[in-house]
DNA sequence: GTTATCCTTACGGTTTACCACAAAGACAAT
DNA sequence: ATTGTCTTTGTGGTAAACCGTAAGGATAAC
């Protein structure tokens, strides 16, 4: 089992639950920090001291305060650490349950597990730790569908990009121009209209505003 | 000091921190629940048994699951309890730090204290408990401004309602009709336009779509 | 009563979104 | 090359959003 674990979570209180889980697994060498930057430094330092951590459990959202941070979120921390130290196991432990974020963390940053804080968060966390120790991944049930490959009901990246541009305040004509500038095809205003119309039908949205609201709620953007 | 306390929070783990705070204050008779409905029933039962709780510490947001709930959020629970049992002291303990919500809870529902979960959440919670016991109120520093009097530049419930209706797919004319049907004033199309325009300026949004996206990202709707 | 101010409502004009249809291009199979 | 199909683009018309302006109403101060 893991022997040296770091917990990163700005709410000090929640760590006590995590600590008891680790204790159950016989893991005693546990440190905790309340800032991502501290986590980064502690992990770096441990490597220099040739006593590296073998597991990081980190929250994603950290309240900003007076301290200027190089890594303001758990996401930033994970990206940096996995790039520099792919061998370090990382479990994300967050209230966030948006599929898009889960997908990003797992597929792009290669996080080892994603556990949703919730009524059964600690139970799931224990499972996650054991699976990650066996070089496997883990996802909380509520976000397990994020990785299943059947989720794609023919909505592609182009479609997502359109809605994202919409949500950023661009008009449909702006979007057309933007696509032309970036040599993305199709780019005509008419095509943009047509695609968005298809999406509206697919998501049963009354208009573009409704569409953006729905797609945001689904966590696709 | 308080003798019988109920804690309501769907994340079981966080309660351990709260428990240790209560322990420090010499409060041992503490129960905890993970659903607002359970909190309501437990409090009602205790009153019938003539052994009422004298303090409730509750979270605001509870993840919905298979169990159908009469009080899906801590807000609903507080409103109901303060209406039926004004003498019961209630402390809201939440990550939520939106002034609008704080104002509603304190001024309208007469919650006794509002503590933000965060790096210093437990310290603040201890202060809150002591002040509430002395029939005073407490607000975490980051939301203390919620009650200060110069808050008129803020967004009110009417504004939020407008954006929410927008995000539900209603056109501005639909919204006008809806407001007229519900005897909410102002209700004219022109007024709806004007309010939304003000909100667009306030949130630096290019158009209604952008506005909805921004407000959703801020978690206001 | 007058004045000033704020809010609500109404109206016209411009821009953008929405929708149906048609033309032009891309592609594969024969 | 021709056919059929699909995608992309263009056009025109209606609805809705956007924006300025102004009329009407309530309120408070004087």
From TrEMBL, chains A, B:
<feature type="domain" description="Response regulatory">
    <location>
        <begin position="4"/>
        <end position="132"/>
    </location>
</feature>
<dbReference type="GO" id="GO:0000160">
    <property type="term" value="P:phosphorelay signal transduction system"/>
</dbReference>
<feature type="modified residue" description="4-aspartylphosphate">
    <location>
        <position position="59"/>
    </location>
</feature>
<keyword id="KW-0238">DNA-binding</keyword>
<protein>
    <submittedName>
        <fullName>DNA-binding NarL/FixJ family response regulator</fullName>
    </submittedName>
</protein>
<dbReference type="GO" id="GO:0003677">
    <property type="term" value="F:DNA binding"/>
</dbReference>
<keyword id="KW-0597">Phosphoprotein</keyword>
<dbReference type="InterPro" id="IPR001789">
    <property type="entry name" value="Sig_transdc_resp-reg_receiver"/>
</dbReference>
<dbReference type="InterPro" id="IPR011006">
    <property type="entry name" value="CheY-like_superfamily"/>
</dbReference>
């Amino acid at each position: 089992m893991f022997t040296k674990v770091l917990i990163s979570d700005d709410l000090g209180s929640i760590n006590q639950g995590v600590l008891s889980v680790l204790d159950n697994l016989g893991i005693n060498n546990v440190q905790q920090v309340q800032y991502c930057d501290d986590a980064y430094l502690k992990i770096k330092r441990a490597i220099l001291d040739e006593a590296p951590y073998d597991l990081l459990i980190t929250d994603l959202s950290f309240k900003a305060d007076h301290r200027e941070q190089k890594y303001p979120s758990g996401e930033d921390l994970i990206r940096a650490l996995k790039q520099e130290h792919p061998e370090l196991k990382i479990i994300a432990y967050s209230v966030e349950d948006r599929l898009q974020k889960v997908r990003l963390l797992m597929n792009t940053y290669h996080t080892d597990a994603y556990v949703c804080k919730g009524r059964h968060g600690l139970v799931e966390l224990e499972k996650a730790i054991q699976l990650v120790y066996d070089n496997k991944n883990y996802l909380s049930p509520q976000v397990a569908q994020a990785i299943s490959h059947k989720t794609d009901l023919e909505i592609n990246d182009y479609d997502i990009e359109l809605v994202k541009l919409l949500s950023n305040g661009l008009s449909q004509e702006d979007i057309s121009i933007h696509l032309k500038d970036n040599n993305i095809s199709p780019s005509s205003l008419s095509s943009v209209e047509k695609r968005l119309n298809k999406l509206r039908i697919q998501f049963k949205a009354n208009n573009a505003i409704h569409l953006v609201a729905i797609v945001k709620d689904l966590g696709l953007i």
